[in-house]
Amino acid sequence: MSYYLRVFLNPNGQNKQVWKIENDTAERIDVSNTENGPGTFFRANPGETIWDALSRQTHWLTEFHPLKLQPGVYYRRMARPIDHHPSQRLGWNPGIHEEADFVANAEGQLTALARQLGRICQTVQPEEETFKTFGHDIRNLLILACTEVESHWRGVLVKNGETKEHLNTRNYVPLREAMRLDEYAVAFPDYPWLVPFKPFEGWTTASPTSTLRWYDAYNAVKHNRELKFKQATLRHTFEAVAACAIMMAAQFGLHLDGGWRSELQSFFLFSAVPEWPFSDVYISPYGVGGWSAVPFDFSGHSGTIGP
Prior knowledge:
The chain has helices at 50-57, 100-123, 136-159, 169-172, 174-179, 213-223, 225-228, 234-252, 262-267; strands at residues 2-10, 13-21, 25-28, 41-43, 64-66, 73-75, 185-187, 269-272, 292-294. The protein is an alpha+beta fold. It folds into two domains: 2-66, no CATH class; 94-294, no CATH class. The strands form three sheets. Strands 4-3-2-1-5 form a five-stranded antiparallel β-sheet, covered by helices on one side. The radius of gyration is 23 Å and the shape is elongated.
């Protein structure tokens, strides 16, 4: 038994259907009374496959996308488009209701980081010419933002089965591919002259710390302020705060039961987000009860997870 999302265009725009396909039958599961409905149930004749039967009776074959997850199944703290809006790139996570306390605290922390960055920018105008500016307030914000990113990284891994107590960037780097973090770009509407930031771009398994320049700078100034103080730059701090915003969106989307707090919506603008294939879409739990979570399988992704 396999499940497929059929996405197609009709005169009213994009439409979608969810199908369960077995050896000799194909039926829509997102409608009722499928066996008696028009175009909602097909059965193969003796000697032919169900795909032969569909090809004989329809022209739909190129519109079926095999799903990675069954209906009603999702990954904890990983946002995906949902079948009601399969082309909506900034998705949603069905477990958000169980994570209400975490989301509220994370939004509060992100708001505090945004306010502090705004206050710094009232003293240092953010420009290419000033991005090498460093100082105590900038260093402190860089450290806070990076520890918040670490908290998000750890939370995603733990919610998906990680049990190791001590984690590092070699453990975290698989999140780049799994959550497509390097495809996000964040602009700051208060400073429209700045090029959008892509803090996870170029993050590699070969050098999982040094390829995140802002995170590498954080490690340097945290452990050796006396000699590495100059690495606590305004650019690195912008990148770290942008990384926090990306981690929030990559876990829960931008919906959060009504959207981010208006203050955050005005401070951050996602100028680029991943384009998820239809195979990754979360499918509503049609006829199977409620939503249930499964751990994400990191075995085919770059980096190391587990012992």
